[in-house]
């Protein structure tokens, strides 16, 4: 299994969003606007990204 990384950046505010969307972003390790984190490309992380896709920018690292 390859350990591909994804660069995930928060581009829209979490303020006023659904609780489970905010929780998904926090679960990825993002705390503030324009913060970028690198996460492994796993089904669990993909699910969190897909839930809050409209707030995130995703690139392959």
Summarize the structure.
By secondary structure, this protein is α+β, with helices and mostly antiparallel strands. The chain contains two helices and three strands.
Write the layout of secondary structure elements.
Blueprint: E1 5-10, H1 19-27, E2 36-40, H2 43-51, E3 56-60
Antiparallel strand pairs: 1-2, 1-3
Structure characterization notes:
With 61 residues, the chain is of the alpha+beta class. It is globular. It has one domain (5-60): Ribosomal protein L30/L7 (Ribosomal Protein L30, Chain: A, 2-Layer Sandwich), CATH 3.30.1390.20. The model has no long low-confidence stretch (mean pLDDT 95). The two termini are 17 Å apart. The protein is built from two helices and three strands; from the N terminus they run βαβαβ. 30% of the residues lie in helices and 26% in strands.
Provide keyphrases for this structure:
single chain, 61 residues, alpha+beta, Ribosomal Protein L30, Chain: A, 3-stranded antiparallel sheet
Helix run count: 2
Calculate the mean pLDDT score and round it: 95
- Given as residue ranges, the uncertain stretches (5+ residues, pLDDT < 50) are none
CATH class: Alpha Beta
Distance between the termini: 17 Å
Q: What class do helices, strands and sheet pairing give?
A: alpha+beta
CATH superfamily: Ribosomal protein L30/L7
Integer tally of domains: 1
CATH topology: Ribosomal Protein L30, Chain: A
């Amino acid at each position: 299994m390859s350990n591909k990384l994804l660069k995930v950046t928060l581009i829209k505010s979490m303020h006023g969003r659904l609780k489970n969307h905010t929780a998904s972003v926090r679960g990825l390790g993002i705390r503030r606007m324009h913060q970028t984190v690198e996460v492994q490309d796993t089904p669990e992380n993909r699910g969190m990204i897909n839930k809050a896709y409209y707030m995130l920018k995703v690139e392959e690292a």
